[in-house]
Specification:
Elements lengths: L7 H19 L7 H15 L6 H27 L1
Length: 82
Amino acid sequence: MHLGDYEDDNLMDILTKSATALKNDCGNYDMTDEAFEELVFERSRYVYNDALEFFEDNFLSEINKLSLRKALDEMSESDETI
């Protein structure tokens, strides 16, 4: 990705939308999770290069891993409160 003042707003918009889309697919992660952060950057790269239609197929296993991890974490938290 090109970096420069003239593209900062566009890149921030792409990153924000990628994080939101992945939160909808994987769960409510934040950027402190390295696997989620990497996936956000990868999705953003696909958006930037106008190839978003290939992202899900290429990263389906990573998306599924994050979704499953979030579901297991939430199940564990709910078991602890009972």
